[in-house]
Amino acid sequence: MSLSRRKLLGTAAVAAAAAKAARAAPAVSRPVAVSSANGMRAVERAVRGMNAGEDPLDAAIAGVNIVEDDPADMTVGYGGVPNEEGVVQLDACVMHGPTARAGAVASLEGVKNPSKVARLVMQTTDHILLVGPGARHFATMNGFPVENLLTEKARKVWLFWKQNLSDNDKWLEPDPAHYDPDVKAFIDEFGWDDLRRPKSGGTIHLSALNARGDLAGCTTTSGLFFKMPGRVGDSPIIGAGCFTDNDVGSAGSTGRGEANILVSGGHLTVEFMRQGKHPRDACLMTLERIARTTKERRLLNAQGRPNFSIAFYAVNKQGQYGGATMYSHGSTGKRRQFAVADASGARKEDTVYLFEGRV
To answer: Among 75, 203, 219, 220, which one carries the catalytic annotation?
Structure first.
């Protein structure tokens, strides 16, 4: 696969103009918070907290807790889509710029706010990552009760997936004319390339910068829809789903975690910012690296490009920010966006992107 920058960017003129404008733009006022598109309320809460004097990590966690607690968001926390056995397993990590410390949990069951448990791993242990039963035991020791995270809507979606796995099993495929409204809403929101292969799930990443220039990052997710039990993506991996350097900036990702892990995308994005790249350019350069290193045929489309969705979000110490996605539009045809909040309020902005089109 020969990938020139012109071919990679697709809409080269548009992307170049956006990058040039980004480099010329002055730094925004601090504090600022940036996140994936499902984090509008999260970034607003984070900036409000930092304005009130909260540590940037505490503000970031308080922001993502809103999404973790929301059963309507089926990609994070309570109400997240379960694994193939119908069990909700959650992943999260946090990184604190001023102390250069981090904490994470993976395959955690029965806690709707894994970000809080990840912070406790950072604050109270000599470890960075706890997983599975060990993470659950640690949460219990710290007073987190066992909660049922599988909502009725998520259960219906999981059962629908089970019913459509094979023509040869004992499940009868549902009649499309009589799909449950919750299932239909899920398909409309996330897309479903065929009834046996749902699109990947989502995540929320949030990076925060306070008025003093201190940084923090947090990523939390319920992971890939219907994943194998115990599967861990990039979200709890420091350097992949999230990385923060208080001298430079903070970055994180949503989308195909396996692709991000292979390039340590969060760390790579921060390193590009260390070289002086604007956050938007840094995010795009990380996507370029993923596109170049994706070689398995099953992961490429007919044009030789990655056939999956992945996005990066970043903020630097000066308060400049950006978001970039592999494709300009999502599977349902919506323009890819990210959330940001600063002195001008909370809003969504379009991402820059590597390829024109949808996935």
So the answer is: 203
